[in-house]
Design goal:
Strands 3-2-1-5-8 form a five-stranded mixed β-sheet. A five-stranded mixed β-sheet has the order 4-15-14-6-7. It is an alpha+beta fold. It is extended, with a radius of gyration of 27 Å. The chain is 31% helix and 23% strand. Among the domains are: 71 residues; 149 residues, Cupredoxins -  blue copper proteins (Immunoglobulin-like, Sandwich), CATH 2.60.40.420.
Amino acid sequence: MGEFLGLPFDASASGPLIDRMIILVHWLMLVLFIGWGSYFVYVLFRFRKGRNASADYRGVRNHASSYIEGVVAVIEAVLLIGFAIPLWSMRVNDIPPEADATVVRIVAEQFAWNVHYPGPDGVFGKSDISLITPENPLGLDRNDPAAKDDIVTINQLNLPVGKPVIIHLSSKDVIHSLNLPLFRVKQDAIPGQSIRVWFTPTVTTADIQRVMARRFPVSSSHVPEELASLVTLADYTGKDGQVILAKGSSLTDDVLPALRDAGIAEVTVAPDTPTEIACAQLCGLGHFRMRGFITVQTPDEYRAWIADQELQNAQNAQ
């Protein structure tokens, strides 16, 4: 049903409830559009010129329209009280314990998303505005014992699948808006405030890539423009074992003959990182550049990524 309304792929545990709310509202909008549109056409025909010469200023006296408006008001009240408010309450108040979640800070700025992980000790290190530099956008004080193991990335958020995520969202400058369409999350980032946002990823980025994958026959002489930005999901090798097109590479016109010579009939491509971080608030002239990426991984892949980031921290500290 969500696909019928053009909703994006659902990758969040709370997604079905949010999608249901969106679908119910759209059904109400459709009924109102058809109902009032039909009534408007009827009125145009019923009271056309010359049809009602004896019309008076008091108009037609009946309560049909009042009844219809009452029914619409009741339906809207049911949507609001029965669905919208409980759903909003769950999203705002029923936040899981941080001990059972992946906790990160995201600090927006013109024009980037700064992601801050607390490290193995689970404690965020201190930040100081006087320490902010292009290399240290959060002003993290590495002399603070709690900050020594902290991990900071820019425009890249890695998360484990199946575990709640709690984001402490804030902004360094103007109002931004964290928009994660596939996870049904949208929240303004407001300077001077730290707002908690949470969701639970249900599928990995690799799973989403497989769902969004498209097959392209290499018999074609030209790669369509809409496929040029996609990447391959596997290595494609020639008869001698040499890699013609590596996994994660873009498909181009010049590799098509080699693929055909190797007897490869088609290539599977998909978006490189389909889970994006978008800014849904016009935040300045560079708004179009404020684009980040989410990589949802298996627990083992996430632990390996964290370990790699810790190793980089240790090397940078030397």
